[in-house]
Each structure stands twice: as structure tokens, then as C-alpha cells.
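QA checklist item 7 of 12: single-chain prediction sanity check.
[x] sequence parsed
[x] length recorded as 467
[x] structure emitted
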Amino acid sequence: MAPKDPQKPRSNPSDAALFRFAVVSQVLSQVLSGQTTADAIADIAARNHMTPQGKSGRVSERTLYRWLAAYRQREIADLEPASRRRTTSSVVLSQFLLKFVREQKEIDISASLPEILRRARLEGLLGEHEEVDRSTVYRACVRMGVPVVRRKKAKVRDSRRFAQPHRMDMNLCDGKHFKAGIHRTKRVALYYLDDASRFGLNAVVGTAESTPLFLRGLYESIQHYGLASIYYQDHGTGFTSKDTQTVVAQLPAALVHGEVGYPEGRGKIEKFNQTALHAVLKGLDGRPDIDADCGALELRLRHWMREIYNHTPHESLPLTTTGEHMTPWQRFSQDPKPLRMPLDLADLRQRFVVELQRRVSADHIVQIDGTNYETPRGLAGTSVSIWRQVLDGTLQVLHPDGSGRLVRLQPVDLAANAQARRADPPQQPQEGHAIPAASAADRAYARDFRPVVGVDGGFSDPKPKEK
């Protein structure tokens, strides 16, 4: 992990770049599992992916090779799409043919493009020997927003169980909801598990599966055990947010979300959740001696994970010389792969900073997550970059004086602003500014209204009359 300048602005990846990063992460995870790059790309190209627009589609192998090469060169920066003008018409096809295709799709939406082209030929819109590429017609339909229906094929999926060979090749994370205390307060626990050794890395407790909760647990696990190559999660709101994808891309590491309806991919973490439920979580419900505070529950779950679970023989791990299965701690500690520890905590915290773009109002206010923050004077009416530390939620912005220092933003105090004195305008000319020259009106006044008393304090002698 190379050190980064804390004053350097962070990248603000677009939704399209984050989607491409998610697809590339799947390819990298397959390669780290032992597949060749060609086989991994062929496997990922055969899957359907959910685009940022909420549509399901596939990515060609040629595009995957291009995205992978761009990511390896400059990580997520080169995954940004090139801006280009889009047209809703066509410079190749005639307007009469486009109108006919649009009308036929409205009448018969299931009609294929070759069938519509045959109808156009019979109507005289195409010559007998005039050739029209149906791919050109397809792209024109997409630009015009005309629905293009494809026949659904049977879903063929290569479902198989997997296991990484070494520690910190892949980390699994999932949440488990439970109730605690005499009032049966609802809580959720996020567990972080190593895939190869089943070693419990960390556990955090919150009121809901949120992005700050997950990133806090991720930061603590990296701080103690280093960085993993792949982070495998489900489609929870805290795992699929833009902040989560941005932070994992800045570590850098690959982020993979398990396929919906594929329990084999999350079988290990689901089995761990069942173990935790029967061993500790079920016994917290309704007990009057249990403190329902998140910090107190977090201490209990971490103690069970580190002192009991990690030192209990696991049936999925190899046998030892005594004939018993290895414990997760034995498997994790005996792995020859070195841990990827961060350079220092300051560098690690900087990788948990994301950039926001906001426009400052005329009264120096920016709104973030429904809260108004007051910015330094001099930024009104401008677009600024705001850096948010996702671990503690602090916000910083560059000071407009050009010194390059970061200023922490605070929520606006309306009551204090109502009683505070306003700044007085400067009464004296600023240093370096020349005093304006006397105007013609000033010169005429000085000529017509001379002082009665001279410089010496006495009356001046009247001017003698000329003879």
C-alpha cells in the first residue's frame, strides 16, 4: 500500500466506473482462485450483471479485456467512460424506415428486427437488393428508446463450492439480526470471517446494517490482520453502497457481491451465523442481566469469537497429528502466506476518505445527508469538493485563502447566528491601495470656499488692490 498525500483530492468515481469495478473484481477473484485469465473472462461474460440503471445485461469478452487492462494500469481511474455525444436518430438509415420500425414495435412488440425489415421491404421502404445491417437497426432502436425483446434462454449456471488456499485471500462478511436484553431490543451483528481458515477476524454490533458499521469493522480487521485480496458479501444496503465500493477500490482490493439465489457461495458464513446463533445470540434474548448497549454486546461477541470459536476444532479443516481437526487459529497462524499489513494507521485512515461534490449557497451553506453545514467565507456560489471520513463522519474542505489547509465543517448554529454581531466594513483603505484622486467637485469646492484662518492661526492680509 503506497502512501498518499492527505491533502491530495480523492477521486470521485461515477456509477458507471463502480459498475465496471464490480465486474472486474469478479474476474480478479476467479484468477486468484486458480483460473486462467481467459477462462475467468469467459465465465464472467456468460453471466448477467445488474447495471446502475437497474437493467440486467451481459458484458462481452472484448470489453472485459479492455476494462481489466485499464484497471491494472491505473486502478479505478481508467474505468471512467469516455464522454461522447449520443444521438436519438441515425445518419445511415432513412427517417421513413426508422418511423416504420417504431410503429411496428408499438403494434407488435414481440416482432423481431429481421421480421420488421422483411415487412419494410414488402412495403417498398427498402429496395429489392438493398442490404441493411440489422445491428445498425438494433442500435438505432436502442437510441430511440424502442424496446427490443429477446427470447429468454434457460438459466445455466456452473454452481460449485469453493475455498481459497491461503489466509486473507478472501474475507467473508454477513449480518445476523438478534434481540438482546429484557426489552428484547433489536440488534444486528456483522461478522468478518477468513475463507481459507474459517478464522473469526472481527465482530461489530449496531442497530441496522449500515455502511458506517461495516466500514468500521473493516477498518479494525485490516488494522489487526492486514488487507485481504477479495471481500465477498451479499447485497445488503451497507455492502452495496457507493461509499463501500469507493473505499474498497482505494485500499485497493476486489469487491464481490454473491449472486442472488446462490446459497453455495455464502454457505460458510451462513453456517457460521448458525453456530453464533446457537452458541451466544439466542441466549441474549429476554435476559434482565444483559446490557442491550451496542458496545457491551460487541464486547461479548468478540470475546466468544476470539476465546472460544477460534480455538475450537472445525470439522472442515485438516486433521492434526493427534487425529483432531485443526482449530481456525491453528490453520490461520500456520499458513505460510505473509499478511499484507498497512504502512501506518494514518495512511490506512486516508483510504477511508471519500469525496463529495456540493454547491455552496449564497449564505455559505452546504447540505449533506439532510444536515446544513457552514463553510468558510469566500466559497458562496461555488462548487467545492468535500472530503468525508467515513469512520467518524467528519467533513473537511479546502480553505479559500489558497494555503491548502483543510477546515473541518460544523453544523450551522442558527440561534448563535441570530445573536452574533455582523462584521463591520473596513474604514481605512487597505494597505497597498492608493487613495482616490480628488474629483472635479472637490476641486471646485476648495477653490470657492477657502479657509478663513491661515496656517499660522491668524487672519491673512487682504490682497492689495491693483492700481
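[x] summary fact logged: DSSP finds 15 helices and 14 strands in the chain.
[ ] second reviewer sign-off
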